[in-house]
Amino acid sequence: MSVWDDLVGQESVLETLRHAAAGEGMTHAWLFTGPPGSGRSNVARAFATALQCESRTGCGTCEACRLGISGSHPDIKWVKSETSVLYVDDMRDLVQAAAKFPSIGRWQIVVIEDADRLGTPENPRTGNALLKAIEEPTPKTVWLLCAPTRADVLPTIASRSRHVTLSTPTGEQITDFLVRTGIDPTVASFAARASQGHIGRARALCVDEGTRTRRREIVSLPARLTSIGSCMTAATNLNDLAKEETEAITVETEQRELKDLQAIFGSERKDLASRSYRAALGSLEKLQKQKAKRRVLDVIDRALMDLVSVYRDAIALAVGAPGLLVNEELRGDVAVLARAASPEQLVRMIDAIFTAREQMLEFNVPPQLALESMAVALRLPGGRQ
User: Fold this and answer.
1) Angle ∠(179,181,182) on CA atoms, nearest 5
2) Which of 39, 175, 253, 359 has the fewest CB atoms within 10 Å around its CB?
3) How far apart are CA 116 and CA 329, in angstroms?
């Protein structure tokens, strides 16, 4: 089994990457873009592994491939920000480390999963720290950057990277992939539709009952938004669901990070006068708060996209579009929306969802306020005040 086998719906780019791994058309900086769920990080992982492969093919069986696939290859560094931005000091340290010669592999490879968090044109400090390394590359260093679109990356970095555009896998491609991994065809078909082309989400829907339950609660909300009271309740429930899901992830991670910090300082942490430990602990707590906030926003963002799918289904039903709905199992609820609101009104409701998303992600509006405003805009016409 090669490192390329799990890449779903990206046949158009695999030939380019295979040739590059073999030494044809190779360059020092690559930018992988594509919509959420298209597998940007998976493609970057496969490519990084193939570049280190002993046969340069991504065979999947050599020691270099095994280390790369497991994420433990010493010459492949992974950078994933759980906050809104990547910090400039961290990037400077990474640039210095990446300039070293590889220890066992052919290349020193750095994969940045969230290159869209390198900064903005107004505040480009982190991106500028990386730019110099890309402008003056060391002979054995390769940078693999991942972002939703080219426009999400600083223009100076994008212009110096080879651009690879990924596509959203079709429902049929995701279903076939899930079935090949042992998932029941009926469950695989549901997950492929509900994930809307997001491979990781499809996997989670197949194997995790909690994920399916939370999604079911979210997509059942639109038909119940018939009064101001129900809208307020829905906004609160949506926010609480996001917090609960985030807390389940965060508690274990934060405890592990605290233990690691305590191990580093040893007995010094017991000294109440240890300024260095107190400073490190304060920095850790600040970072953990930022991570938790970002995780809540990411969970809410996913929930909003599930909501959008319901309103798109209602538009499809209203205009008589052929094919299965994304939320086929909720066809009755979707029909309620299609009867209660015109396609034009449903489009405005979708706009309200994206407005709430922008308020939270771009303008730092508290989630509860943004969700309440959104829910009121989603109230069904003719509903109670």
Assistant:
1) 65
2) 253
3) 36
